[in-house]
Amino acid sequence: MLSKDLAAQVLEEVLKRGAEGAVVRLQERVYELVVYDSGVLRSYSISTVRGVGVRAVVGGGTGYAYTSSTDRESISRAIDRALSLARVAKNYGRKSFAPVKPVKATFRVEFKVDPHTVDPQVKVDLVREVNTASMKRAGIVSAITRLGLERDKRIVLTSEGTEVEVEVVGVGLAHTAVARYGAVIERVGDRESYIGGYEHIERRDWLKFAEEIDDLAIKASQARTPTPGTYVAVVDNEVVGLLLHEAFGHASEGDGVVAGASILRGKVGERVASELVTIVDAGLVEGGYPVPYDDEGVPKGRTVIVENGILRGYLNSRDTAYELGVEPTGNARAQDISFDTLVRQTNYYAEPRDWRVEELFEGVSYGIYLRGRGAMGGQVNPSVGTFTFSIGPSYIIRNGEPAELVRGVVVSGNILETLKEVDAVARDLKVTTSVFGGCGKGGQTVRVGDGGPHIRTRRIVVGGG
Amino acid sequence: MIHEVVERALRVASRYGLDEVEVYAVRSSTTDVVGTVRGLERVVSGERVDVGVRVVLGKRVTVQGGMVSRVEDVDSIVEAAAKVVRTLPEDPNWVSLPKRTGKAPIEGVVDPKLRVPDVGYFIEVVKYLLEGAKDIDRRAYTSSASVHSTYVERAIASSYGGPQIDERTEVGVFINVKAVDGTEESGYYDFYSSTTLSRLNPEELLSRAVEVSVKTLGAKRVDTGTYEVVLVPRVFASVIQALLVPAVSAESVQKGRSPLAGKLGSRVLSESLTLIDDGTYPGLTGTRSFDDEGVPTSRKVVFDRGVLREFLYDTYTAYIDRRESTGNAIRQAPYAPPAPWMTNVLVEPGSGDLQSMVRDLRRGIVVYSTIGEWLSNPVSGLLNATVTNGIYVEGGEERFPVKGVVIAGNVYEALGSAELRLTATVESFGRFRVPAAYIPKLTVAGR
What we know:
The structure holds 2 protein chains of 2 kinds. Chain A folds into 2 domains: 4-221, PmbA/TldD superfamily (PmbA/TldD fold), CATH 3.30.2290.10; 229-463, no CATH class. Chain A has 10 helices and 26 strands. Chain A has helices spanning 4-16, 72-89, 120-135, 199-203, 206-221, 237-249, 254-258, 318-324, 357-361, 415-418, and strands spanning 21-37, 40-58, 61-67, 104-108, 140-158, 163-181, 184-195, 229-235, 279-282, 302-307, 310-311, 332-333, 342-343, 347-350, 366-370, 377-381, 386-390, 394-398, 401-406, 410-414, 422-425, 430-433, 439-441, 444-446, 449-452, 455-463. In chain A, the strands form 5 sheets. In chain A, strands 8, 15, 16, 17, 18, 19, 20, 21 and 26 form a 9-stranded mixed beta sheet that branches. In chain A, strands 1, 2, 3, 4, 5, 6 and 7 form a 7-stranded mixed beta sheet that branches. In chain A, helix 3 packs parallel to helix 5 (206-221). The longest helix of chain A is centred in the N-terminal third of the chain and has 18 residues, at 72-89. The model of chain A has no long low-confidence stretch (mean pLDDT 93). By secondary structure, chain B is of the alpha+beta class. In chain B, the strands form 3 sheets. In chain B, strands 3-2-1-4-5-6 form a 6-stranded antiparallel beta sheet. In chain B, strands 7-14-15-17-19 form a 5-stranded mixed β-barrel. In chain B, strands 11-12 form a two-stranded antiparallel sheet. In chain B, a hairpin with a 2-residue loop joins strand 5 (161-181) and strand 6. The longest helix of chain B is centred in the middle third of the chain and has 16 residues, at 233-248. Classes of the chains: A alpha+beta, B alpha+beta. Chains A and B meet through strand 2, strand 3, helix 2, helix 3 and strand 7 of A and strand 1, strand 2, strand 3, helix 4 and strand 4 of B. Strand 3 (61-67) of chain A pairs parallel with strand 2 of chain B.
């Protein structure tokens, strides 16, 4: 088992061998996945990630080395490698880190039923039941059902005296249905995840969850694609989450800002969104993925990025905070020990206002109601300011009401334009996370949460068939 | 270590009365050098060993594994797999693990300079890429540049034989260039990706990135409508990967998730399009002597002048169709179950070059980069990609740069057109060797 004692020994050794500063990260992650595909158990897999990562600072140069082997010799080699890389790096540029107060803390997600101790048979039976029921539905030609169970334990010790241990347990079920109507085949997938134990899986009616997805896939296969162009849009909670994450979140990451690669650089204090828009990144929020401390051991509190439409700051690690002359925000995160940290979002969402959701549709004679169920994700180029994401089957709005369903909807926009067009924000805040994926950047994926209330935007580019 | 891991796992498995066992072990060593406009940001190096154990009892199958810290860690992986497999339902489609294992002859997959990486050289490359942009055009600067190098050793053994061992190297050099002129900004991302450093030309990489970045300054949206579109090789490759590759996976076909099901022998694409999957092609990063379940890789024509000739198979899907695997078993991670996927994709060249293709445009967009093309829907065949760097061309003349528009359409109509054209010049990068493509008609959502 990996322990704080081991981390302390590694830290002592790095400093003894000449580092002026160091971060030692230990990680043990178990991920269990049961997959049923079209009535057949496709896989039951359990995988683990375990190892040690060392960041050493020598003469202002930093090096990071990792090893999955935890024997004394391998760890010793990793320490030497981190030190030698730091010595090479110092000849090409020195890095400084914003000072932090040392923290000693432990955070563990509470749960009733440890998901990894539940009888495998019980898990397989659940996934089979959901999947086979779906395959029996008329119009469904294929269905994939996945049960994901995860425990991720991270220990971070730093030369400043920080000692942090975080253990997150999460569970979820994902279902994708493929429906055929004539020559048209369409797919709709959705997932629901909970932070906590297997009790969340036991409480939910998953047959109903899958049935709703199946019905939507069947209806979508009979729907047309939208006419491409610019629309007034009412955007649901999930799509708002995607939109904020892609359209704003990445551009507000401090590493892109200090590298001159973000379109938001130099814009603190400027209007970047409608005055109705307030955006925050918070480590702990209901429905989100808990990040109480980042992988540099810095507490992740609540960071206001946009306040009433004005850009207030960025997300920072210790080194980008130093560069920008601000406090670190606890956003240095790594996928696992085989990577050094990057600046990442945690739970990024918009604050609610006081509109009722129905009021957002009023007065919209023609527009689109963008829906998140079935959304595939998105991408942004923060330096150009262009973002895009694929969303689920959505509704054309006619005379203030959601009317016909459309499929294959993709939206696109510009970071500095889209949020200025928001003219209504509802009161129904909802943040979600997923144990099946996350946010990708620099070849790393981390778990995130996102969301917000329903909003309305006056113009957004919609692509489609 | 991986040799020991594989042999130990097989030995341990023999205690549990299993019918079939396969052990796959991968040791990867990585070295990354990352720089930004601030200078050198990170130098990262390390090694990890990952193991996947697939065990079979009758028609019950499971895969377990992960990163291992010590050789003995495989004992608990095998034990867990042997325990779980007994609780599982039978898979009626299961026949056996691959029995026809072996190695295809390949070359050009190991660069000695990457097996033992020269960090100093990587830093020099990153430094040049970071500092050289302004000398080419004063409006341009490099916001980030990086070199990622990997050395991989793999071992696989099963109840039917082995271990088989191979090795390969891989290198990626990435650059983000920004151009700023007054209030106008643009950015362009380019890369070099290969098994060796032999074709790396940092000067050429930088000058191309600067050129596209500067020429797309001041980009705007075009009006919504139908346009001719030229996709440069890397964009064409990303469309192939997002829409055609999933559709020719035998798994998608068997599970009703491919629009190409039942179309073997039919013309589904333009006559000018011949697409080959080749896991043995020198220099491309998908090249291996055997696939991720030990079957020799091979070369196969998937679309022959537009006619669908072959799907991609692993052993499991091959048994379902009563045929042999095509050597296309790929695992997303060493401890994930294999599934059929592309190795390397080669598209046969056409005629002429990119410049003449652009000159022939009446009213079109030359697309240098997109985002979100991977969000296209391979089940329905609907392409959607947002242009981040493009040039609007009218009457053969470049008029103005374009960004923020969505190109959309059914990929089989777009690539099935009799007027589809490909260039004679092809580019090799990552798992692709492809030309540029001219598509006569695509919908563009813009203003």
